[in-house]
Write a structure and sequence with these properties.
Radius of gyration: 22 Å
Helix content: over 70%
Oligomer: single chain
Structural class: mainly alpha
Largest sheet: none
Order of helices and strands: HHHHHHHHHH
Number of strands: 0
Number of domains: 2
Distance between the termini: 66 Å
Shape: flat
Length: 248
């Protein structure tokens, strides 16, 4: 991996974490998308989207509430895919590599929220001295984004550039762990789907889970067709329950 490619991976991670793009959380933030973009950067988009989609399955039941972040999804997707393609890892081993990277990236989120609070006094001073709020963009946009760039783009660029060789040497010294990593990585998507099923299999919505399973298992309908049937069933269900509640 060249230094420029590593920088592009770091820049991609910055854009995924930045609010400047406005759409990063729904697009670049997701391993399915950023994995494909990393694959384009490294010249292997097929492998990139394959690894990214697999990592995305692990976070399919991801929930972040109250400012907490149990794992850093873009870190796992971007750096995990970059290191996996550079080191020539298979999908399961890449997934196992992405797990600790996501946990490590969570510290970036905590550090960002903590240290960004130091810009608040500067914001208050500008508000007190200037009724027109002129210059407020400096502590609210420019400085936080520069700080975010330093804690996202820079470390990921360094890790992506030097990490492939380091990871390759490390995997060579612990080659006996590769089968174990593959098995553990193969279990991660099941964990993500299990978390999702835990929330679906509650109350009256569980019947739709069985309906979708039966349609997928015993019909030749494509997933788009099943999705449209689910949408129609959901609309009918809402209409019926709304009329019943209105009558009561």
């Amino acid at each position: 991996m060249s230094l420029f490619q590593a920088f592009l991976c770091g820049l991609l991670y910055f854009l995924a974490q930045s609010n400047v793009t406005m759409v990063s959380y729904g697009t670049i933030y997701r391993p399915l998308v950023n994995g494909w973009l990393v694959g384009l950067i490294l010249g292997d988009p097929v492998m990139g989207v394959t690894i990214g989609a697999t990592i995305n399955m692990m976070f399919i039941g991801f929930i972040s509430a109250g400012g907490s972040l149990p794992s850093d999804i873009p870190m796992a997707g971007i750096l995990g895919t970059a290191l996996a393609i550079s080191a020539g890892l298979d999908v399961d081993a890449a997934l196992a590599l992405a797990v600790p990277l996501g946990l490590l990236g969570a510290f970036t989120w905590v550090g960002r929220l903590t240290l960004d609070s130091f810009f608040n006094p500067l914001t208050e001073k500008i508000i007190e001295k200037n009724d027109s709020l002129k210059g407020l963009w400096l502590p609210t946009v420019v400085l936080p984004q520069l700080f975010l760039f330093c804690i996202t783009c820079v470390p990921v660029t360094i890790a992506a550039y030097f990490g492939s060789q380091v990871v390759g040497d490390f995997l060579g010294s612990v080659a006996f762990l590769i089968p174990i990593m593959s098995v553990v990585g193969g279990l991660m998507p099941a964990l993500g789907i299990g978390i999702t099923l835990k929330f679906i299999f509650q109350g009256e919505s569980r019947v739709f889970l069985f309906l979708g399973f039966l349609l997928a298992a015993y019909t030749n309908l494509p997933m788009i067709g099943i999705g449209l049937i689910a949408l129609i069933a959901a609309i009918i269900y809402i209409q019926i329950t709304s009329k019943i509640e209105g009558a009561e």
